[in-house]
Amino acid sequence: MSSILESAKGIIKEAREFAYLGKYPEAIMKFKSQIDTLSQQLPKNQGDQLLYQEWSKLVNDLKEELDLTQILFDFTKGNPNSQQQPSPQKPKVVQECPEFHEDNRQPRLPFNQIPFQHHQRENTSPRSKANQFQISPPKQKPQDPDEIFFGGLRGGNDGKKPNSNNNNNNNNNGNNINQNSSNYFYNNNNNNNNNNYNKRPTNNNPPAKDPDVWDPPSKKADKPKQSQKDQKSNNIFKAQAQQPQQKNNQRREYDKPWKNNAVGEKKPVEGQRKTFHDHVYPDGRGPDSDLIQMIEREVLDLTPNVSFEQIAELELAKDTLQEAVLLPIFMPQIFTGIRRPCKGVLLFGPPGTGKTMLAKAVATTGKTTFFNVSACTLASKWKGESEKLVRLLFEMAKFYAPSTIFFDEIDALGSKRGDNDGDSARKVKTQMLIEMDGVSGAASSGEERKTVMCLAATNRPWDLDEALIRRLERRIYIPLPSDTGRKLLFEINLNSLKLSPNINWDQLVKKCEGYSGADIANVCREASMLPMRRKLKEEGGFQKLQQKYEDISNVVDVPLEQKDFDEALKIVNKSVSTEYLKEYENWMKDFGAG
Ligand SMILES: Nc1ncnc2c1ncn2[C@@H]1O[C@H](COP(=O)(O)OP(=O)(O)OP(=O)(O)O)[C@@H](O)[C@H]1O
Hints:
One of its GO terms (biological process) is microtubule severing. This protein is mainly alpha-helical and 594 residues long. It contains 25 helices and six strands. It has a six-stranded mixed sheet, with helices on both faces. Helix 17 (423-444) links the parallel strand 4 and strand 5. The longest helix has 28 residues, at 49-76. The termini are far apart.
C-alpha cells in the first residue's frame, strides 16, 4: 500500500507544480484524480491504523489544496464573485515539498512585477539580543528614525511602521494575498490569525498594500539622511550664529552671597583683619590654599577662654609660664639678649592634670593667637605634606603674632629619631626643629618682633627626641593634684551647684587620692546627676513630674549630699597608674627645667 501512497505523492507534486506555474486547470485535474484514487483505496486499509491515518490526512490535505487552487483559478479568470474563501489553515505545500522553496521561482515573473521585498532577517548580533531586553522610552514622532525611514522610503502604509501583527510575523510577506496569484504559494509561514485573507482586491477597491513591500524611493528619501546628532549640533551652531554676542553682553550681575565664603571670591571686609590666606594669596587662590584653610579651620582657636583662676593648684607651673611666656609678650623690649624669651615650654605629667588648660590660659591671658595643634592631625591627615604643614603653621603664627602654638601629645610627632622612622616623620621633625629656631631667631634679631611661643605637652617625655627637648627650654612637671589641689578642684567644679552642708570634704579629698583633675571633674559630674535621678524616680518619672509642676527644673535641682559623692566614687575610678608617677619624677630630676 505504501507504494500506492508514494506514487500518489509523485502525482500530487506534479499537481502542485502546475499550480505554482499558474496552470490551475491541470493542477485541479491532477488533484481531483488523486483524491478519487486515494479515496477509493482508503476503506480497504483500515486494518493498518498508522497507514490509514496518513492516508486520510493526505486526502483531506489534497481537498484543501484543491479548494485553494480552485479559488486562485477563479480569481485569475476575473471572477471576484466567487463565494469560496481560502481556508486560513496553513497549506502543507512547503512542509511536504521543501524543494518548492528553492528560489528559482523569481525569474518566472516579469521583472517589473517582482515585489521589492524588505526581508527583515532575524538579527542575531549580540547587541540586538541585548536590546531585546531593553524597554526604550516612547519616541517623539519626528525624532523616530524608523518613522522617517518608513515614511520616506516605504511610501505605503502612510509612513507608519507595519502593525504589530506583521512585526510578530517577522514581516513575512505572505500575510496578504498578492495580486500575483502565484505568490499565494509563497505564504508558507502564514499565520492562522491573519485577517488579511478577507481583504481580497476587488475591481472597485485598490489592492491592499503590503507594508513590507516598498514603493519606489520618493524624492524626499533620496536626500542623504541626517543623523539626529548632526541635526542637533547644526541647530546649536545656527542658534549661536543668530546670537553671537548675547552671552558676553548679558553677563548676569547680581549678588552671589553663597560665594562670599568661597576661596577666590572672598573680599576682605573693611575693618576686619586680613587673614593669612588673603595675605599670601591676594588673588584668592594659591597652591597651598587647602593646607592654609585646614589650619585656619581646625588648628586656629580664636577663643580659648581659660583663665589661670580656673586652674586648681599648679602654682609653680603658672609662675613659670607667666615668666617664660607672658612677660616677654607684654615687655618685649626687656627680654632681649641673654634675657631673650625661651624657644619653647614643655608641660609633662600624667593625663588629665591640666596641661592643655594651662596652655589655653597662657593664650587667653597674653591675648595671643592660639594654635592648638594635635600632633596626630599633622602626622596622619596630610600624609606627605606634614612638613609643609609645619612650615605653614609657623608662618601663620608669625603673621598672627603674638601667637602661642600648643603641640598636644608632642611625643607622637617628636619622638626620638631612629632607623625605623619613615621619610615623612623624619622630615617633619627636622622641619619642626628648624621652625622653632626660626621663631626665637626673629625675636632676638633687630627686626620687627614676632613673638611666637611654642608650648608642648606630653604624657611620655622620655620618648621625646633630644634635639626637641633642648629647644623646649623650660620643662615643667604637671603632677597629680595634692590634697589642697583636689579640694580646690571640687570647689571649682561644684561652684554652680547646690550642696548639702553635711558633706565631709576632708574625707572626700582623702578618698580621691591618686585622682587627676580630670578624674575629679568626672566624680563631680556623676555626683551631680544622682540627686536628680533620685528625685525623678520618687516622683514617678519625667512625664508625671512635668504634668505636676509647671517648672520642673527647680524641683529636680536637689542639693548634693555625701551619699552622692560616695556613690560617684564607686563608679569613677582613677585613671592614672601609680607606676608612671615615679618615672615622671625621675625624668624631672634628669631633664626638668621649671
Ligand atoms: N588643675 C586643674 N584645674 C582645673 N581643672 C582641671 C585641672 N586639671 C584637670 N582639670 C580638668 O580636667 C580636664 C582635662 O584637663 P586637660 O585637658 O588640661 O588635661 P591634660 O593634662 O591636657 O590631659 P592630657 O594629657 O590627657 O591631654 C579639664 O577640662 C578640667 O575639667
